[in-house]
Prior knowledge:
The chain has 453 residues and is an all-alpha fold. It is built from 14 helices and four strands. It has one domain (16-446): Amino acid/polyamine transporter I (Up-down Bundle), CATH 1.20.1740. The strands form two sheets. A two-stranded parallel sheet has the order 1-2. A two-stranded antiparallel sheet has the order 3-4. Helix 3 (68-91) packs antiparallel against helix 10 (263-293), helix 5 crosses helix 12 (352-375) and helix 11 crosses helix 12 (352-375).
Amino acid sequence: MNPLKMEPEPNGNIEALSITPGGAPKDGLVSAHTIDHDSWRQVGLLLVTGYSCGYILSFSNLMLVPLGWFWGITSLIMVAVFTAYSSWLLAGFHFINGQRFIRYRDLMGSLFGKEMFYLTWVSQILILLLTNMGFILLGGKALKEISLEFCGSTLRLQYLIIITGVAYFVFSILVPTISSMGKWLIVSSVLTFAYITILLVLVIMDGLEPTRLEPNKRLIIGYEIRGTGASKIFNGLCAISAIVTCNAAGIIPEIQSTLRMPAVENMRKALHLQFSVGLAFYYGVSVAGYWAYGSSVSAYLPEDLSGPRWAKILINSIVFIQSIISQHVFIAPVHEALDTKFLKLDKGIHSRENIKRLVSLRAALFTVNTLVAAALPFMGDFVNLIGSFLLIPLTFVFPSMIFIKVKGKTAKMAKVWHWAIIVLFVLLTVATTIAAVRLIVNNIAKYYLFADT
């Protein structure tokens, strides 16, 4: 079988047990969440809105300020191309020799052994938990900006982080799986388009008329890359790590598992949507923000806007609501693992037998994540470290390893290409990890537990 071309027809070996509404129990793979159910359009919307979340409001500062125009745009394009290719490649290995792999760790464990199973799973857990903590911090930041606009002062960030964590917890109970997000994805799509449109209009207006900026803002926009020669290189490597993070999350098989047949073809259609419409959204905001405000662009783009007060409130309100929906995509694989382990699989996910366990699992997870986000509101530096050390291999190295293992004997020329990818991105992993560690060491004096940033 050629996993790059065609998947087998579904049979008893590649179906799944589902205990969620919309997926009747079947024999085969076991999961507490729905498998083989969603359309490619639903998953495409999930990817577009998930990656166009409020995180993009920091991308101008994180990705383009350290790199400047030439290296910034070049890096954006190159990372997008390689990420799209690696995602497309990995989607093709959803079936191998008639077996369906609904989890990345199962795929790596089957091909490379128990050690790779655990390495993949630990990498995913760390990435997904830190991503969720970042979402909680993002929601708290949006609420703080709204409060400042209304009354000029605000509660401590930690209280707003707690409110965000509670909102995420409630949503995870009402919408427990990716497949149950259907109507919410439509809401998220409308919200995403609305806030990005308003944001771009205000940013472009500021860029065309620099005098509209507040007096304390620079009227002459500069794009110089700051720092010494060595610091420019290290900061640039951190920026590349951030670009990878904005394009991937290391959960392609888990998202693909929700798709109905043909799952490979449908996943690739969804990926086309992400790397066309989705890319235009989050790259568009990043480039516009850097163009309008230059090297002085804020780490949270709405802080720079000089538009009307109602627009800032509306943008931050939409970002907060949209983040409730978007964050669910990236924590769902953790929910799935816990639900499959602890829920009764012969009962419905909201049944009397399971609801107490569901609430307990979600409460424990969001309590820990909220506490860490409140204690470490500077965790962006650590996200860079985890992204460098773990996400680059998951996104680029592992798919090429899988190709060599499965197709290496019959595709010798392609094997050379994939070895080149492995070497290139292993070197990039080492370089970006060193840069991320250096950044943490340089900033360690600025870190304070429960800081009201």
